[in-house]
Amino acid sequence: MVALRRRGLALLALLTITIPAVSRADPPGKDQCFDAYEKAQRLRKDYKLRAAHEQLLTCAADSCPAFVQQDCSKWIGEVETSTPTIVVLAKHADGSAIDGAKATLDGAPLADSLDGRAVAVDPGPHDLRCEANGVVVQKHIVVAEGQKNQAFNVAMDGPGAASSSSSTSATSEGSSSAPAGEQPAPGASGGRRIPAATWVLGGVAAAGAISFAVFGLMGRSVQSCAPNCTRSQVDDLRRDYLIADVSWITGLVAAGFAVYFALTAPASPPPAPVTAIRW
Predict the structure, then answer these.
(1) Distance between CA atoms of 231 and 247, rounded to whole angstroms?
(2) In terms of DSSP bridges, do strands 124-132 and 108-111 run parallel, antiparallel, or are they unpaired?
(3) Residues 119-140, mean pLDDT to the nearest whole number
(4) How far is CA 53 from CA 28, 65, 73, in A?
(5) d(C-alpha 76, C-alpha 1), whole Å
(6) How many beta carbons lie within 10 A of that of residue 167, not counting itself?
(7) pLDDT score of 178 more than 70
(8) DSSP H or E run through 202
(9) More confidently predicted of 202 and 233
(10) Contacts of 51 (CB under 8 A, 6+ apart)
(11) In this predicted structure, what is the pLDDT of residue 215?
């Protein structure tokens, strides 16, 4: 009896010492408050609302400076309002729920069991993966900011489902099925490839047209001296018009060959088939 009493007193003393030590957490210091204050704003700007909420709980502590505590306390309510929640349900093709289904969101566990409870997540696009009875379905979802209890139903035995033991994952509900969870990406048909000669000759044709216009205008300006043109002005007039004519002919010939090479170029072979992962 005495021994039992001594053991009881010892246990009581131990609990008296350890329980306050465990339950009493040191309040955040000034540096921690300012650090959490800044991190919360950055995270909120990046729409990482759950992480921002954790930082706001730190900087809203009574030990933080008054203005920091005031701002963080206000932002906690705003972040909680903006943080959406989703309800994921795994279902059979007939619409009945599947018990024991598990889910991950962006590779992180979402719920050990999809039991209809809402889960808080960050807004934006996510990759949802559900598994039940050895079947895996992956689905790309977009979660709207501020909306609560957004429902996402995943058909586990539809055409998009696949065995979890297979090497590839299944496509999401509502998407068209393809072998091994992939769908061929639309490939462009083989078209006519424009040869380099066409580009070069096209440039020569353009240069010829510009040269024709420039020297033609220069010749017209010199021609304004008629009928009192000097020998030098006449020589300049002939030179400008000659260069303009040569440029015009050169441009026409180059343009003709450019079109010829473009029309007679062989068709390029179609690109190799490419497969794109569909979620």
Answers:
(1) 24
(2) unpaired
(3) 92
(4) 16, 18, 10
(5) 55
(6) 7
(7) no
(8) helix 196-223
(9) 202
(10) 43
(11) 79
Are residues 172 and 140 in contact, defined by beta-carbon separation less than 8 angstroms? yes
Q: What is the pLDDT of residue 268?
A: 61
**Are the CB atoms for 105 and 88 separated by under 8 Å?**
no
DSSP state of 64: S
Structure letter (DSSP) for residue 156: S
Which one-letter DSSP state was computed for residue 97? B
Residue 248, both tokens: 């015009």
pLDDT digits (tens, 9 = 90+) for 229-242: 777 877 777 887 78
- Name residues whose C-beta falls within 8 Å of residue 199's C-beta, 6 or more positions apart in sequence: 258
- Both tokens of 264, joined, read 């007679």
Distances (CA, A) of 138 to 119, 153, 188, 208, 237: 18, 12, 28, 61, 78
209-219 burial: b if 16+ Cβ within 10 Å, else e: bebbeebbebb
For residues 129 and 140, give the distance between their C-alpha atoms in angstroms, rounded to a whole number.
Answer: 9
Output the CA torsion sign for 208, 209, 214, 218. Answer: positive
* Crossing angle of helices 30-45 and 49-59, rounded to 10°: 160
Q: Which residues of 35-64 are buried (b: 16+ CB within 10 A; e: fewer)?
A: ebbebbbebbeeebbeebbebbebbbbeeb
Q: With 0.70 as the threshold, say if the pTM is over it.
A: no
